[in-house]
Amino acid sequence: MPAAEDVFTRRLHPGEWPFLQAHFERLDPASRRLRFGNAVTSAFIERYARNSFDADAVVLGLFVGGVVRGVAELRFISADRGEAEIAFSIERQCQGFGYGTRLFARMRDAARNRGVHRLWLTCLSENRRILAIAKKFGAKVTLLGNEATAEISGQHPGRGSLSREWVEETRAQIFEMIDQRQRRIERIFDPFDSVGDRATGTQARQ
Ligand SMILES: CC(C)(COP(=O)(O)OP(=O)(O)OC[C@H]1O[C@@H](n2cnc3c(N)ncnc32)[C@H](O)[C@@H]1OP(=O)(O)O)[C@@H](O)C(=O)NCCC(=O)NCCS
């Protein structure tokens, strides 16, 4: 499990659709099927990622070691924006560490803070993991054939949800700034490292 300081969640912006595409491409076949309900092609994933950032969407990325390893999506489904549908995906090597639960909590706060009072999640009924998470957040689960629907109602914004979202977004910005500075410093010192490496016969950093 990565160090806690290497993990943060922040909102993804429209220009970052390639992060979403790359994340979905890295999902193993079983996780992709659980996320989309069936097997999907790379062409579908590219189209889906490009179209995920319209005005009716909130997309959160879970960054682990600087890479988007998890995504939570919200789409408004009612004209008054009081109801929305949510979906989640975590890459296989990061599953089972509590990140899905963390993204769920983050998305619930984001939804509350945008005036959503009812959340819906649809998945395959075999998907015990996401249903277990949804139940932790008070979802009412209905199973119908191979499909399951989880409904979370009675959502209201509060000081807690507003401040949690603010703290997470600010924390993410600070971590990204530190990370970018670190990479800039590494780039500056890289030529010297290579010279040093040549002198000592060690392999240059990639
Ligand atoms: C579903 C998904 C988002 C969950 O994320 P995650 O990081 O693996 O989940 P977490 O580690 O936060 O929590 C998993 C919970 O499910 C529980 N769980 C796991 N397998 C279970 C099972 N077979 N039956 C019941 N509960 C189960 C765990 O005990 C855990 O709950 P706990 O924290 O109370 O112990 C992730 O596994 C994923 O991306 N899967 C593929 C795509 C997908 O299914 N998306 C959801 C459809 S929208």
UniProtKB/TrEMBL annotation:
<dbReference type="InterPro" id="IPR000182">
    <property type="entry name" value="GNAT_dom"/>
</dbReference>
<feature type="domain" description="N-acetyltransferase">
    <location>
        <begin position="7"/>
        <end position="159"/>
    </location>
</feature>
<dbReference type="Pfam" id="PF00583">
    <property type="entry name" value="Acetyltransf_1"/>
</dbReference>
<dbReference type="InterPro" id="IPR016181">
    <property type="entry name" value="Acyl_CoA_acyltransferase"/>
</dbReference>
<protein>
    <submittedName>
        <fullName>GNAT family N-acetyltransferase</fullName>
    </submittedName>
</protein>
